[in-house]
Amino acid sequence: MFKTRFKSHHDVKDVILSKSKRKLKLPTSYWKLMNKEPEDLDGGIYVHVPFCDKICSFCNMNRKQLDNDLEDYTKFLIKEINKYRDKVYIQKKKFSVIFFGGGTPTILKPHQLENVLSTLREVFPLDETYEFTFETTLHNLTWEKLEIMKKYGVNRLSIGIQTFSNRGRKLLNRTYEQEFVMNRVKEIKEKFGGLVCLDIIYNYLDQSLEEVVEDARIVGEVAPDSVSFYSLMIHDGSSISKDLSSGEKSFDYKTERDRELHDAFLNNLLSNGYEVLEHTKLTRGTDSYRYIRNVHKLKDLIPIGVGAGGRVQNMELYHLNKLVTFYSADSEQVMKMKRISGLTQYEHVALEDLKIVAGDRYSKLYEALQNLEKEGYIELKENEYKYTQKGIFWGNNISSLLVEAYFEG
Question: Is the dihedral of CA 113, 115, 118, 121 positive or negative?
Answer without folding.
Answer: negative
